Amino acid sequence: MKQMLACLTLIFSTYTVADTLIVQSTTSTKNSGLYDYLLPLLKKDTGIQANVVAVGTGQAIKNAMRCDGDVLLVHAKSAEEEFVAQGYGEYRRDLMYNDFVIVGPGSDPAGIASASNAVEALGRIKAAGAKFASRGDDSGTHKKERALWEKASIDPDAGSGQWYLETGSGMGATLNTGVGLTAYVLTDRATWITFANKQDAVILFEGDPALFNQYGIIPVSADKCPKVKQDAARVFTEWLLSATGQAAIAAYEVDGKQLFFPNAN
Question: Global pTM?
Fold first, then answer.
C-alpha cells in the first residue's frame, strides 16, 4: 500500500484546483468537522483537492450511481455492498466507526435509560406514547433506526404524525426538532457531540452492540462511470486507509473527545 500511495502521490503532485475530486458523503462526517481537518492533510500529501457533497447515505449512493461523484463514503454496509455488487464501486473497505445513541429530554418520560437493549428502549417509547423524531430520509441513521423498529416488531408508521415524527431532514435539523418537541432521537455520537442546541436533552441510552456504526469507503467504478477520476479516487481512498490516514482519523477530537475510530482492514 505504501508503494502504491507513493507512486500515485507522485502522479498527482501537480494537481490543480480545476481537477477536483468529488466525494459523495454522509452528513455526519461533514457536520462533525472531520473533513475540515482531514482534507488539508490529504492535499498536502497528495496534491488532491476534494470537494464533499454531504447528504443522507441513501441519497449519496443514488448520486454516485448517477456518476455524480468519484468516491463514496457512507455508513450503511449492506447498501454499500450492493452498490459494489451492481458494479458501481471498485471495492468497499471498512474505514472507521463510532456508535449511535438515543437522546431525549432529561426527564426521560419513557424510562429508556434503564432499558437492557436498544430494541427494548424503542418499545418503551412506543408503549409510553412518547414523541420520537426520525430523519425519515433513507440515510444510514434512518436505515439503522428502521431496522431496530423492525426487530422490536413495531410499525412506527402507524403513529406517523402523532408520536412518530418524520422530519425528512438531516441529523442536525432532526435534533433541533427533537429538542424543540422534547422527543427522543437516534443520532450518531459524532453529530451529538458537535450539536450546539442540546438544551436539556441528554444521552439516555447507549452501549448496545446493535448501535455500532461502521463507515465504509468505495472508489466509484469507471466501468459504470467512464468519466470518473479513477486514479485520484484510488489515491484518496488508499490515503485514508493507510497508516497516515488512519492516524489522522484517530487524532481528530472535539472538546477532547475522539469522534471516529479507524478500523481499516
Answer: 0.88
